[in-house]
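Design request, tokens follow.
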């Protein structure tokens, strides 16, 4: 009996031992990674593998409660969680840790030059000292790009790791200098951007003045003055303008990156004054000189300007029998008076040489210019003579020689202008003015087709605008 009893208990004791051993083996198998997983240890995917033990622990705890006949199944399940983890690591993007890290350059530091700035103050604003500035200045000799820094210029610094790598001086939107640091020192490069050019058409009718009509047409003040300058030899804009006069023109607009940066030259223009039409075409000859000519090739320029001041009013005409407004006696008025505000610039009517500049009796402050052997012009009652105007000074047509005033015998600010031919006073408003030299015949072959094309464009664009209205 005792023998039978002990025989029945023996298997139970062994079963408990077997279960205990099986659980221990299963737990050990979980924490001993397979060969594939061990190969990943120390690799970037190690962090992914180590994230799985919580699932593994859950599987192991469940196996400890399973019957003895399911131990092999539990052992197999305990090793499976590593398989999907590795698969996830293989399918994720892998960073290239062995590749060099790219160097990201810092942005350009832009500093606008203001009045009173110099290179030292600009470097200081950029956080740089003399140890960066002087090697650069000495390294780019004999070039002197910083000799004339003007307000409005812009300096741009490229600083990498606390050191100056490049310096760019932007003089305008079209012109800049780039100084680069290299192993041998500094290298300077001039960069010129070429703008895109488009043509713009404008037209207008004069109701009160050319200036107001030009503004109404969308022209800048500079462009209005340029238009007046082209036709200033044929039209006196102080005397001849009438209501109903008209103009039309084609000029260039310069664009950079699709943005208009400034107006270019007038390339064709037409002005109708009191029923008479004048046309001008801009032409650049084989030498690179640009001027305006009529469609027939005659120069728009004359040897003399009709009016030496812009947009002035005639207050007194040429009159040999005029009664003097101050002395109340009959005194010939041998010139034309142009009433204009004090300080208005006075221009030389033609190329010539100053033969007198100073005070001259009732003329007040006066300048007299000689043009060749035949012609002289006189400009009187100036508020001041432009510095540098003295006997022997050469002047070009259109150069400012003084400013409107009321010195001498004058009742108000105005310019008294005289025109003399061989010493004899002539009426400046009616005297025939000699033309400048016409276009050379060798240039006609290139000029004539251009002139015909531009005149046709003026006509076509005018008709198109009328139809649009």
């Amino acid at each position: 009996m005792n023998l039978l009893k002990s025989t029945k208990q023996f298997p139970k004791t062994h079963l408990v031992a077997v279960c205990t051993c099986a659980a221990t083996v299963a737990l050990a198998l979980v924490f001993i990674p397979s060969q594939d997983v061990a190969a990943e240890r120390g690799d970037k995917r190690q962090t992914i593998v180590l994230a799985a033990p919580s699932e593994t622990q859950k599987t192991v705890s469940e196996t400890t409660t399973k019957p003895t006949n399911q131990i092999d199944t539990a052992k197999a399940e305990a090793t499976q969680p590593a398989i999907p983890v590795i698969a996830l690591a293989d399918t994720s993007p892998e960073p290239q840790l062995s590749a060099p890290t790219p160097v990201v350059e810092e942005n350009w530091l832009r500093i606008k030059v203001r009045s009173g700035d110099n290179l030292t103050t600009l470097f200081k604003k950029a956080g740089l000292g003399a140890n960066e500035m002087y090697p650069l200045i000495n390294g780019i000799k004999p070039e002197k790009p910083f000799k004339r820094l003007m307000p409005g210029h812009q300096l741009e610094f490229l600083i990498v790791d606390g050191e100056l790598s490049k310096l760019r001086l932007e003089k305008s939107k079209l012109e800049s200098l780039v100084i680069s640091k290299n192993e041998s020192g500094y290298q300077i490069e001039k960069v010129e951007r070429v703008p895109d050019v488009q043509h713009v058409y404008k037209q207008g009718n004069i109701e009160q003045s050319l200036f107001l009509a030009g503004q109404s047409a969308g022209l800048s003040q500079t462009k209005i003055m340029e238009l007046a300058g082209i036709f200033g030899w044929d039209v006196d804009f102080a005397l001849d303008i009438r209501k109903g006069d008209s103009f039309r023109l084609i000029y260039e607009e310069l664009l950079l990156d699709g943005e208009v940066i400034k107006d270019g030259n007038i390339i064709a223009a037409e002005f109708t004054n009191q029923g008479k039409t004048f046309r001008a075409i801009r032409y650049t000859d084989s030498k690179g000189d640009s001027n305006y000519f009529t469609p027939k090739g005659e120069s728009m320029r004359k040897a003399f300007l009709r009016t030496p001041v812009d947009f002035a009013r005639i207050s007194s005409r040429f009159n040999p029998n005029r009664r003097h407004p101050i002395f109340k006696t009959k005194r010939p008025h041998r010139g034309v008076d142009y009433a204009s505000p004090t300080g208005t610039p006075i221009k030389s009517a033609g190329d010539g040489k100053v033969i007198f500049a100073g005070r001259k009796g009732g003329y007040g402050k006066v300048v007299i210019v000689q043009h060749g052997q035949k012609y002289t012009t006189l400009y009187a009652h100036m508020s001041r003579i432009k510095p540098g105007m003295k006997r022997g000074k050469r002047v070009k047509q259109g150069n400012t020689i003084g400013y409107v005033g009321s010195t001498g015998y004058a009742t108000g600010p105005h310019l008294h202008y005289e025109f003399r031919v061989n010493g004899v006073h002539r009426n400046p408003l009616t005297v025939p003015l000699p033309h400048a030299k016409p276009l050379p015949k060798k240039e006609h072959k290139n000029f004539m087709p251009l002139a015909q094309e531009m005149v046709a464009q003026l006509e076509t664009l005018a008709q198109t605008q009328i139809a649009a209205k």
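Comment from the thread starter after seeing the answer: thanks! The longest helix spans residues 2-31.
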